[in-house]
Specification:
single chain, globular
C-alpha cells in the first residue's frame, strides 16, 4: 500500500482516493442534477467506513487490547472489507424495499461515478500522469454523456453502463491486475445494486 506524507503523518493513498471520490461524486451529481445527492449514498458510505474501522477490533482483538489507539490508524483489512460490504448490501436491500422513488434511476450511476473517480485518483497516485490522463478522459466523456442525458430528460440505458464497465476494465488491465479486490468489489456492488434497481422498476413502474 502506498502512502503520502501530510505533515508528520503517513496517509494511505487509498483513503485519500476514497474521500476524494466520495465528495466529488456528490459535487458532480449536484452540478448536473441541481439537487443534493441522495441520503442513502452518504449513509452507505458511513456504514461501510464505520464497519470496516471497527472490524479491526474483531479481527485484531489482542493487538487492540494492548494498544487501543491502533484503531485510529488501522482498519479491518480484507476480512473487514468483506464484512463491511456485506452489511452495506443489507442496508441497500432495506433502502430498496422502502420504495424510494429515485433509487432505481440513481443508484447505478452514483456507484459508477464513485468507482471511476476513485480509479482516476488511484491512477494518479500509483501509476503516474499518463494513466491518470487516460482515466480522466474516460471519466470526462461519461460525465458529459450523463449531463446530456439529464438535459434531454432521458434515462441512461443499462447497456451503456455495461459498455462503460467493460471499457474501464480494459483500461485497468493495462496498468494493474484486472482481478484486484477493487474491481471484484465494484463488480459485485454494481451488479447487486442494478438487480435491486431493476426489481424496484418492476415493482413500482
Amino acid at each position: 500500500m502506498m502512502y503520502i506524507e501530510i505533515g508528520h503523518r503517513s496517509i494511505p493513498v487509498i483513503w485519500i482516493a476514497i474521500l476524494l471520490a466520495c465528495f466529488l461524486t456528490a459535487l458532480i451529481y449536484r452540478i448536473v442534477r441541481k439537487t443534493s445527492i441522495h441520503s442513502w449514498y452518504w449513509n452507505g458510505f458511513l456504514i461501510y467506513l464505520i464497519t470496516w474501522k471497527l472490524s479491526y477490533i474483531l479481527f485484531n482483538f489482542k493487538i487492540f487490547l494492548k494498544s487501543p489507539l491502533s484503531l485510529l490508524f488501522f482498519g479491518g483489512g480484507s476480512l473487514g472489507h468483506i464484512l463491511a460490504i456485506a452489511i452495506l448490501c443489507v442496508y441497500l436491500i432495506i433502502v430498496s424495499k422502502k420504495g424510494t422513488s429515485t433509487f432505481s434511476t440513481s443508484a447505478p450511476l452514483e456507484i459508477l461515478l464513485f468507482f471511476l473517480l476513485y480509479e482516476t485518483w488511484i491512477q494518479y497516485f500509483i501509476n503516474g500522469i499518463l494513466a491518470f490522463l487516460i482515466q480522466l478522459f474516460l471519466l470526462a466523456g461519461i460525465i458529459v454523456y450523463y449531463a446530456m442525458s439529464v438535459n434531454r430528460n432521458k434515462q441512461i440505458p443499462f447497456q451503456v453502463y455495461v459498455v462503460i464497465i467493460l471499457l474501464e476494465f480494459c483500461l485497468l488491465s493495462i496498468f494493474q491486475p484486472l482481478l484486484s479486490i477493487e474491481t471484484i468489489t465494484f463488480t459485485w456492488i454494481f451488479i447487486f445494486i442494478s438487480i435491486l434497481a431493476k426489481k424496484e422498476e418492476v415493482t413500482n413502474p
